[in-house]
Amino acid sequence: MKQNKNDRRKELEKDLEKFPFIQDHQDKDELYNKISLQMMEEEPKKRKLVIMPIFALVAVLFLTALILPPILIDQSGEDSMDIATESNEGGEDNSETLHDEQSAELSQIPSEMEVTERDMDGSELQSYLVFEKFKENPFIIAVAAGMNGEQIIPFAITTKDGQLNYTTTTTLVAEQAEELGVAGFPLQGTEINRKGTEADIIFPEDFQMAGGSSSDVMLHNSIEQTFQNSQVSQVNLKYKDGRPFEMGNFGTVESLTIASSVKVSYKLYNYPATESKFLVPIKIDENATIEEAFQTMIDNEGGEYIDSAIPAGVSLKGEEASEELLSVTITTSNKLEPDQQSITMIEAVLATAASFGYEHVQLQGLPFRSIDRYDLSNPLETPVAVNPLLMDTN
Amino acid sequence: MRSIFESLYEKYHQDIFQFIFYMVKNREQTEDLVQEVYIKVLKSYDKFKGDSSEKTWLFSIARHVTIDFFRKQERKRKRLLEFFDWEKKGEQIKDQQPLPEEIAEKNEQIQILYEHLDKLTVDQRSVIILRFIQLMSIQETADILGWSISKVKTTQHRGMKVLQDLMADQRKEGDNYEAK
Known about the structure:
- The structure holds 2 protein chains of 2 kinds.
- Chain A has helices at about 1-15, 30-40, 75-90, 95-100, 165-175, 175-180, 215-225, 290-300, 340-355; strands at about 65-70, 115, 130, 140-145, 150-160, 180-185, 190-195, 200-205, 235-240, 255, 265-270, 275-285, 305, 315-320, 325-330, 360-365, 370, 375, 380, 385, 390.
- By secondary structure, chain A is of the alpha+beta class.
- Chain A has 2 domains: about 45-260, no CATH class; about 285-385, GMP Synthetase, Chain A, domain 3 (2-Layer Sandwich), CATH 3.30.300.
- In chain A, the strands form 6 sheets. A 6-stranded mixed sheet of chain A has the order 2-1-21-5-4-6. A 4-stranded mixed sheet of chain A has the order 7-8-9-10. In chain A, strands 14-15-16-19 form a 4-stranded mixed sheet.
- In chain A, strand 17 and strand 18 (about 375) form a beta hairpin.
- In chain A, helix 8 (about 290-300) packs antiparallel against helix 9.
- The longest helix of chain A is centred in the first third of the chain and has 16 residues, at about 1-15.
- By secondary structure, chain B is mostly helical.
- Chain B contains 9 helices and no strands.
- Chain B has helices spanning about 1-25, 25-45, 55-85, 85-95, 100-105, 110-115, 120-135, 140-145, 150-180.
- In chain B, helix 1 packs across helix 3 (about 55-85) and helix 8 (about 140-145) crosses helix 9 (about 150-180).
- The longest helix of chain B is centred in the last third of the chain and has 31 residues, at about 150-180.
- The relative contact order of chain B is 0.10.
């Protein structure tokens, strides 16, 4: 019997050894070009952005639209709660579907749009995250360029009625760039159509980019960020009239590959003129460990208007409990309270862990057992998107 | 950078491609992941200290890239499962790839075994591919995975046991079918 088992094992080994050699048919030079293009695109991201492709749009066309940052706030306190809930809890990653629906038109064109800044009343903490379990409202990802011209800020935009069209939505949101405290939305005015793992971005014929490589890199990073959590692996670029897209210094770029994973450390974008605060992903080395990611979160670098989301004196230690669960021990020289500062830190940690592929994070070392919606005695879910905005067209 | 790429390509490209291919079983995805491997390698080549062999280092990065890919896929799959209705779910879950040409040319036994690789855990699959398809030694496999030799042996044993049981079940089904 044992002999029989051993024979079977040997036979199995021999069969495995007979597996055919799988050859890559890609051309070596072509492969090298793709790799070097990707590496070039990543390198100059620290340069200043000079101009963003913002098109003049006629503001009078829009009637009653409100864009509300996460925790925010309509006319009445009760509404405000609802909005906050929907914004945070309704923002499941339905971008797949929305991307499929992007040719649809809005049934009603709002003719005015204004942004109400978040109104912290002291009793409610602001959340920056969107979780997959909240799927009441679909959302689209619209990416803004920070005023520092270096970082991009992704927003998960949702509406009460779930009617979202990429072109219209980004156009409406871009109108409010100043109020949001961002420089603009690099993909404003474009049309996006998805086909399985590929997407087409169709640029208006008069789409203009600022000169300089920083603008090119910003546009590339915006595209990458827009599709980061979708299933899209390739994005094809062209103008509406069918011409291939000219990406500044990169020349003609017909398609871009979207990396299946990008590790980032989340920090806080803090533009003082509007007091806007949003989580901003800082791309880190692809070989970085979670410890290195935490260190990047803690340090004070990152550029103008970028702050650490981690309070001074706090250190973070991460340990992989399983492939899906990260255990994070927080130690601090100052006492932490269950306040906005702490929830911002917790959410930045969750978002950073998500970029490493973790689905849950168990936090340890905090001197309170719960904060806002988070029960710290259990592992916390990592988010699917950050910076929810609710567009209310009523 | 070009010379480093050329050197790595000549020495390891096809092996790395094959390893990732047997892990993810999709040629296009493999091409993308191989690109990611090169980018990581080229960006950190000057930090490579030579503590391990170049080959071990490269395979280790390839494995991490592949695991990151699986994690992302898993997250996406879960999101889709929650979002899509059941009718669409079937299409989303059923991401079975057609047999690659190279496997389709082999006998049925090999084809079945190829399908069964999916039933292994990622760790078991890594070990089985490295040991029996890439024909690496236990020591090399341990170095790539960053494991002890005994962990490689245990994981290999468990993986082979899974495959053996699956093949045995397959044989039984075949016998029953013939008996009818």
